[in-house]
Amino acid sequence: MNKIHAAITAVHGYVPDYVLTNQELERMVDTNDEWITTRTGIKERRILKGDGLGTSDMAVPAVETLLKKRGIGADEIELIIFCTTTPDRVFPATANILAEKIGAKNAWGFDLQATCSGFLFGLTTGAQFIETGKHKKVLVVGGDKMSSMVNYKDRSTCIIFGDGCGAVLLEPNYEGNGLIDSVLKSDGSGVCYLKQEAGGSVKPPTHETVEANEHYLYQEGKAVFKFAVTNMAEVAAEVMEKNNLKSEDIDWLVPHQANKRIIDATATRTGVAPEKVIVNIERYGNTTNGTLPLCLWEWESKFKKGDNLILAAFGGGFTWGAVYLKWAY
């Protein structure tokens, strides 16, 4: 029997209707469109509006449309891996909440937290269940409601992040297509540079932590940029070198959408031509776990069976990684 690969057989995404433009941010904080665009490449981002709405509410339309495209029911899903930094609640897992909302009555699931690298970590984790033959249909979801933890008085972070969610279905493939290889890394020394200070067991919520704005995202931009611009590019090149891939062998580079300069550095390091680099940061900003599946969703119609894709990401903590996969349809 040929080796089993975990292949993406369907993908879909969802972004909220509300568009937060750079011009609107100019009225909220001391910034301007030119400053934001030059430093990040972002022109607008989507924001989930409405009381009582969480990350799972963006996942539902993404997953339901994915299932329709694939022609299967939610009851056929065996495992849900929900990659998110903004779960609906500390517990239960948002994967379990999603399963109930879509009617995935035969699925077990869990949340995976690796910040912006989470979707890659989840993709690789889900692939193990397919490759071993344990499961036939694994749903990997990547999404975040970053607006729930962004301080819109902090111009260093509120210009960057948006809300969005994407999902892929993994199934067995015997033709050599699917997830071929991955390089995943982490370095806990980065905790001081990109974090949410309060809300966990080290510093539970109190009136004092709320008043000190310690439940918002905190980032030291220069330190994070310096680490990300080097390591995301290097890990993408590493997975290519491991698999004897040259730049001309790569059909699409799918980089995490955190900063246009980081994307450009990754493209330069791998030698992938600009027209083969997927970029939508100008419209969505950084949706954290949502960026990679949203890119796959938007470019799905351009992919051809057998195309070589390199996915690369970098996240707080620090986490980073790259995946080499061959498109299966």
Explain this structure to me?
With 329 residues, the chain is of the alpha/beta class. It folds into two domains: 171 residues, Peroxisomal Thiolase, Chain A, domain 1, CATH 3.40.47; 147 residues, Peroxisomal Thiolase, Chain A, domain 1 (3-Layer(aba) Sandwich), CATH 3.40.47. It is built from eleven helices and 13 strands. The strands form four sheets. Strands 1-7-6-4-5 form a five-stranded mixed beta sheet, with helices on both faces. Helix 4 links the parallel strand 4 and strand 5. Helix 3 packs across helix 4. The protein is globular and about 60 Å long. The mean pLDDT is 97.
Termini gap: 21 Å
What number of domains?
2
> How much helical structure, as a percent, in the residues?
25-40%
Beta-strand proportion = 15-25%
Question: Characteristics of this structure?
Answer:
five-stranded mixed beta sheet, Peroxisomal Thiolase, Chain A, domain 1, 329 residues, alpha/beta, single chain, four-stranded mixed beta sheet
